[in-house]
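Reviewer 2 asked us to include a model.

Predict the structure of this chain.
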Amino acid sequence: MEVNYFSVKGSRKENEDYILSKHIANDISVHLIADGMGGYENGRLAAETVSNRIFEYLNSNIDYEDKNALINESIVKANNAIRDLTIKSGKTIGSTIGGCLIIENQASIFWVGDVKIIHVRNNEIQFESEDHSLINQLKKNRNIDNGLDLGSIRHVVTRSIKGEGNKFSPDVVDIDVAPSDKIIICSDGILEISRIADIAKMNFNSETGLADFKNKYEDNLDNSSLIVVEL
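Predicted model (structure tokens):
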């Protein structure tokens, strides 16, 4: 397995994205991107808290047989942690999350919000996560008005980890992975410049591939983060 990643703040004051990529054992690993909400240091704190709580719970309970239930419970723990921070600070903070738990030749892909995850084999997309976003919801309901300014609602999510209610449940999809497959995770800032179909065909392991791609985002309007896991 080879893992490459980057995270840049673009033209924002601070980077509210947070990347976590760690091994639990030789054949078990967790890879996450959290996109914080709450403004500057509060968003960053939310993203770090969510990522670390998820990893800590997965790491401590990895022997649990039902991996989907394990992932769901890790999200509950992260949501509880955000609730505690909100009560303590009196500020509303939160985060979206996208990640995968890889165990040998199985991957459990999970997300809350609009962090995008794709599974690529031979440069072809095998799976693409479906955003929990207002735009996506309107499209599914065929409720897009031709006069609507989609840019104004581009970043509005319908699910996030904010320490409240039941709007934090993840979608979880289990997939089989094979050698040379790629799992790509990216925050929504990446998709402001690049198309998913183009990202799927890129060679990030080339000498300049990842560096050149990263440079495109140094002046992006939004924070931009990417993880490429090649099996």
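Strands lie at 2-8, 17-25, 28-37, 94-103, 106-112, 116-121, 124-128, 171-176, 182-186, 224-230. The CA atoms of residues 57 and 74 lie 6 Å apart. We have added this to the supplementary material.
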